[in-house]
Amino acid sequence: MLYSIVVNFKAEADAVIPPTRGYHAYALFLNLLRAANPDLAEKLHNTEGAKPFTLSPLQGKFRRHEGGLKLTANDIYWIRLTFLHEEVFAHFLDASMKGTGRTHRLADAPISIDEILTTPDRSPMCRCQALDEIFSNARAEHQVRLEFLSPTAFRSGGKRNVIFPEPRLVFNSYLVRWQNLLRPLPSNGVLELVQEAARVSQYQLETRILHFGSYQEIGFEGKCTIEIAGETPEDAVRFLNALADFAFYCGTGAKTAMGMGQTRRLNSGGSLSGGARGNAPQG
User: Fold this and answer.
1) In terms of domains, do 144 and 214 share one?
2) 14 lies in the same domain as 59
3) What CATH number has the domain bearing residue 105?
4) How many Å separate Cα 167 from the centre of its chain?
5) Tens of pLDDT, residues 120-143
6) At what angle do helices 21-36 and 86-99 cross, to 10 degrees?
7) Does any domain span residue 228?
8) 144 and 236: one domain?
9) Is residue 42 part of a domain?
10) Which of 152, 154, 147, 153 is nearest to 275 (CA)?
11) Residue 188: per-residue pLDDT
12) Does an H or E element contain 216, and which?
């Protein structure tokens, strides 16, 4: 099973935290999990590459204060989490339930768990879905619309970030996560078709910076439409649609466990609205 939940936190006092919202969310996640299962927390921390969970940066109403972000006492802030392994979800949920009513630390800010949201009627970002359901329910749509909710980037040779949703990088990101974290998935050569059969036909993107203490990561946020060529075989189209649906849980690109790459698929149809638009770069 795949899970997406939202944890609401209440600030117990006015506090100023560094702008490293993703890094501190990651530290808070591990600290909560460590209280219930220290071995699992250590294993996840030491796991290189893609991890079996994603985190959003801390969300809420902040005020800039001397280079940091000010949290206001009694205001609610939240983190969205997704889980690709049922065991990790179960241990984190247990730790969160046990940690309710206690004071935790996000950087230097004292916070407490206010509520844990797990169902779509409480938040559109909450969902639970079986692995096989994603592929059995996949559509054969030739337009895939994605929204990147936090800075998103792809590693290129480990030396620089690619800050545009090139279809080859987007779909390979999803396939690698499925195969590394869940189960082998035969690609049947579909990704080899992406270079020729898929292109970004429309986008509304802006670059954003996510702070990580001693360094920063640059990524893109916003919406894009990836168009799959009409002559592409239907099974290949369904395969790419399934991977796009999987993005809701696995995120896109690098550092998804530290706030980057939060992604959701948008309904088909309609145009991107608001802000500047652009045409895809031509290869």
Assistant:
1) yes
2) yes
3) 3.30.70.1890
4) 17
5) 999 999 999 998 899 899 999 999
6) 90
7) yes
8) yes
9) yes
10) 147
11) 61
12) strand 216-228
- Domain that residue 190 falls in: 139-266
| Bridge partners for 175 per DSSP | none
Q: In this structure, are residues 2 and 118 in contact, taking their beta carbons and an 8 Å threshold?
A: no
148 is a domain residue: yes
Within-domain flag for 62: yes
Kindly report the pTM of this predicted structure. Answer: 0.89
Would you state the structure tokens that stand for residue 41, as one six-digit string?
A: 């927390």
pLDDT tens digits along 73-82? 999 999 999 9
Query: What band does 178 get if pLDDT is binned at 50, 70 and 90?
Result: confident
The tally of domains found in the chain comes to 2
Assign 142 to helix, strand or coil: coil
Tell me the C-alpha distance between 218 and 205, whole Å. Answer: 13
Mean pLDDT computed over 254-280: 69
Task: Tell me how far apart the alpha carbons of residues 92 and 210 are, in angstroms, rounded to a whole number.
Answer: 25
Contact (CB, 8 A) for 54 and 260:
no
* Between 204 and 274, the higher pLDDT residue: 204
